[in-house]
Amino acid sequence: MPPRPRYEMPEFFREALNARGLMNAYLSRPAYQQNDYIGWITRAKLESTRQKRVNQMLDELERGGVYMKMKWNPK
Q1: Are strands 66-67 and 70-71 parallel, antiparallel or unpaired?
Q2: CA of 31: how far to CAs of 13, 35, 38, in Å?
Q3: pLDDT by residue (tens digit) across 3-58?
Q4: CA–CA dist 5, 19 (Å, integer)
C-alpha cells in the first residue's frame, strides 16, 4: 500500500486554530490525526462544508477525547 499523502497546513486552518487558542491541542494530537483533519477539511468542495468541518475539528480539540466524532483515548 502506498504511503498516505502528507498535507501542509493552510493559512485559514492555522488562523482558525490560533483564534480559538487550540494550536497546542492540535499539535499534541498524533501526526495521523493532524494530517487527517487537514485532508478532510481541504477536500470539502463547498465553503459551507469546509467551515462546518473546521468547526467540528475545533470543537473536538476543545472538548478533548474525541476524534472525527469517535471516542479517542490518548495514551
Answers
A1: antiparallel
A2: 16, 6, 11
A3: 888 999 999 999 999 999 999 999 999 999 999 999 999 999 999 999 999 999 99
A4: 27
- CA 61, CA 22: separation in Å to the nearest integer? 7
Of 31, 35, 24, 36, the closest CA to residue 61 belongs to 24
Give Cα separations from 22 to 3, 5, 16, 52 (angstroms): 28, 24, 8, 17
Length of the chain: 75
Q: What is the pTM of this model?
A: 0.91
Amino acid identity for residue 10 in this structure: P
pLDDT band per the 50, 70, 90 thresholds, residue 2: confident
